Please model this.
Amino acid sequence: MRVGLAGLGNVGAGTLRLVGAHADLLEKRAGQPIEIVAVSARSRSKARDCDLDGIDWVEDPRLLAIRQDIDVVVEVIGGVKGIALELAQAALGAGKHLVTANKAMIAAHGIELAKKAEKAGVQLVFEAAVCGGVPILKTLREGLAANQISSLRGILNGTCNYILNQMGDKGMDFATALDEAQRKGYAEADPTDDIGGFDTANKLAILSALAFGIEPDLSAIFIEGIRDITQGDLRDASARGGRIKLLGIANFFDGKIIQRVQPIFVPLTESLAQVGGASNAIELHGDFAGEIFLSGVGAGGDATASSVVSDLIDIARGNRSPAFGTRSML
Ligand SMILES: NC(=O)c1ccc[n+]([C@@H]2O[C@H](COP(=O)([O-])OP(=O)(O)OC[C@H]3O[C@@H](n4cnc5c(N)ncnc54)[C@H](OP(=O)(O)O)[C@@H]3O)[C@@H](O)[C@H]2O)c1
Model:
């Protein structure tokens, strides 16, 4: 299976490293070799943490969509629209499978892209878009497909979890904790999406779509970030036997789905309170499966590449699940 890779940053370079390191294993599991034949990024001369020998360089990522020698396009550029969306539309329009890690694009344009994929008879997959290396979308789409999900709650943004932990456990103020998160590479240079709760909302919109069979709809989510959380709030939480966590929450109640992103008091007796550092975690309730709890590395090149490449394996195996778990909304 021949792959065109657009974006060679954290996730793109991680994907190249993984495909290089596990070529034999991937071939066995996928039933055919997975080969990255062409790549594209902004700067050709930039030093990269991956080996580009023998791989074609394409100046404009949109050209990956029309190359005859490519079966699957991987979009790991990012951004809600612009070049990422143009590439996604062009790839699906040209009958190529699309793998993306782009939560902002999927939350905003996922249904439109899924319709295009259905029409072309190709796969749109985005495991890496939610919780990095934690296989939560496959769990919902496949493992829990027989269940009515009544609730889901998750720590979906590692940056916020890290900041709140540093403030609560080490007594740092918000600005120092944010600064440290940026120095460690957890937070973006512009952290608005993380600390404003918008990144969590994008992921929640995607999770809700898969859990409840609804269209991702950011306007239906109440969003409150962590900017106004003080050390006093965290001290109070600790005195009451808990921690404050930024949670994405969706509940199915009385025929309605209520979605919100909010800093919430979580008692120490609950698993979510124990999630440390920049980790992610999700707790779900399925009516037949019961409680499910998944946690792990929610970001970073290696963990996110694990999800990107598992999507590639699914495509190579010929797995054909609907992008959002049901064709009824397409
Ligand atoms: N980082 C994570 O842990 C993580 C986790 C889950 C999901 N994601 C998602 O994965 C995607 C990529 O994230 P990332 O962290 O890998 O981003 P990144 O490190 O900023 O890399 C972005 C890549 O896109 C390339 N690029 C940007 N604009 C371009 C353009 N106009 N034409 C061609 N290439 C362009 C950049 O090229 P240059 O290198 O030449 O500048 C870079 O290689 C995003 O959608 C993000 O939300 C990331």
In short: The longest helix spans residues 103-120. Residues 106 and 206 are 7 Å apart (CA to CA).
